[in-house]
Amino acid sequence: MARTVTLADVAARAGVSTATASRALSGKPRVSREMIERVRAIAAEMGYRVDPVARALRQGSSRLVGMIVPVIGIPFFSQLVDAIEDELNRAGFELLLADSHGFIDEEVRRVRVFHERRVDGIFIIPSDRTASTQSLANLPEGFPVVQVDRATDRPVADFVGVDNLLGLQLVFEHLAEQNVATVAFAGSDDASINGVERWDAFHRLARQHSMTVRATYRSEFSFASGTGAADHIHRAGPLPDAIVCGSDQIAVGVISKLRELGYDVPRDLLVTGFDGGELARVFWPSLTTVVQPVSSIAAEAMKLLLGRIESDDGAIHRNRLAPTLELGASSQRRTAPAS
Amino acid sequence: MARTVTLADVAARAGVSTATASRALSGKPRVSREMIERVRAIAAEMGYRVDPVARALRQGSSRLVGMIVPVIGIPFFSQLVDAIEDELNRAGFELLLADSHGFIDEEVRRVRVFHERRVDGIFIIPSDRTASTQSLANLPEGFPVVQVDRATDRPVADFVGVDNLLGLQLVFEHLAEQNVATVAFAGSDDASINGVERWDAFHRLARQHSMTVRATYRSEFSFASGTGAADHIHRAGPLPDAIVCGSDQIAVGVISKLRELGYDVPRDLLVTGFDGGELARVFWPSLTTVVQPVSSIAAEAMKLLLGRIESDDGAIHRNRLAPTLELGASSQRRTAPAS
DNA sequence: CTGAAAGCGCTTACAG
DNA sequence: CTGAAAGCGCTTACAG
């Protein structure tokens, strides 16, 4: 490769100024059609490729987009990163990825670094509903940012996420068909908007379907949180007909713990998850879960970011995308014993 | 933030040339101690931060490192990305992440783009044992590259991965203790070196332990590949005492399919996985698996890359790190029925 | 130890 | 439509 051929080389060979060569290559107006063709042919022949760094310095933009996530290793987040990388790539951007480990200080620092690097925009999964507002505070007014999956309470940037209420509506309609009368909730705390909304939706829908709430438990989005929840719900008294979980990892933890305690899902009670993905399908029993429209969320996020990059227009968007329900074994009573 | 204060601003305020200011800030030799202190104080006071883009253009280096993976969304890969991002960050680099989707063309293209972006080095999980050699062919001689998890056959760059033979040794020793006499293999094909080595190790160790090989099945590293394997092994004749799998996803697929066919693991036969991680622990039965030393692999990869960045010394390294065996329920016969 | 000046590779007013 | 020149913000020989 030997990074060598430069705009000046191309211009020299074409016998024109670098100005003209630059215009011809970048499709700027005010260059003759034949000039464009000639310069492009020569550039192609010489294997010329514009230097992104020089261009970034000159234009103040880099075709780089940063993304900050609480933890890369969590399946749902890595799925999201995957989908967003595809979108970026299709649009000719490169992805700068950062892990905040859930610390606000880290979020703040990474946003600053990204900005200094002249990224054209930032995707962020805020680690905290309220504190994450700070992360964006140092950015100049109107800097393109899209919050993905989680929004901060204060609408400081565009947002795309799942419609939590709709997701739980699907769950409850399904549970109602299974004649569920008593329910429990195993979800996450108020740190993220999803924790808040799923919790609120759970109560609202239980009431609406006249189901009795037996017990609730809130902690994090993790397997361990699920085992803790099962323990708590078990100790709280008679088991409910169904446990509605705030994520698939929680659901898996709940079911594993119940098994340890001597209960079988779905024989003794039903369990549902939230997120969708491989875990839900390979787990035994397979999980009935609310499947997030990951690709659509990524596509929508990209659209919003491009919108901000191209024109810094006014109102802040907060878009909710519709999830679907995937039925698994975990919420369907077998008519006859399986074996 | 309003990206404004520049080196010139600092120099002006300090009453020195930008040359001196630059030297003072970057700790270059030949500046007086007091000059250094004065300039630094002023810079700090003004909130000056060096512009990485300008520096990159001038120095030809960017403090950016690229990483190319076959698919970000696969748990083991995202764990690796996570660990490497931590290492990079600690060393003051930013991560440029790309997904090749397993296509060589994409790999080639992303490597080229990274190089043009002036990354200081590249981590790559090659998608193919032989073809991926091409991806690096366009790089100038001595460009810092480290292959992670998978090596190409031709040693075109440093490599860090797991010691597959040792991993399967641990598995076989454990199976021998369980009095396993017949075994089957469910692994991946020859596309990656891990597929090759685990396959070879399986045969070598079966012979060594005088175990009879009942059936083998090779496809990809996926859940579906596991269900296919179970089907094949089941049809091939009497079931073996144990099925050794090339990854946890395969193991989970194998167990699920066996269950569907009416067999219970570990009651009817034992199953082991490879990789380690949450899936192995939350699955039911929990998986006995070879746990890859992900953090150590990342740390070692970083060390090799830094070595290449600092001095382009000679010999190519191919480092194998020792895994450990995590015992789960999937490979241990219960003395008495569980329920 | 410090400064004036060139230059990394582009893009873009400003003239013509 | 095209060119000469400035400049994005640094770093680094080259002098002194």
UniProtKB/TrEMBL annotation, chains A, B:
It comes from Kribbella yunnanensis. The keyword Transcription regulation applies. The gene is purR. Keywords: DNA-binding, Transcription, Transcription regulation. This is HTH-type transcriptional repressor PurR. The keyword DNA-binding applies. Residues 5-59 form the HTH lacI-type domain. Pfam families: LacI, Peripla_BP_3. Gene3D superfamilies: 3.40.50.2300, lambda repressor-like DNA-binding domains (1.10.260.40). SUPFAM superfamilies: lambda repressor-like DNA-binding domains, Periplasmic binding protein-like I. InterPro entries: HTH_LacI, LacI/GalR-like_sensor, Lambda_DNA-bd_dom_sf, Peripla_BP_I. Coiled coil: none annotated.
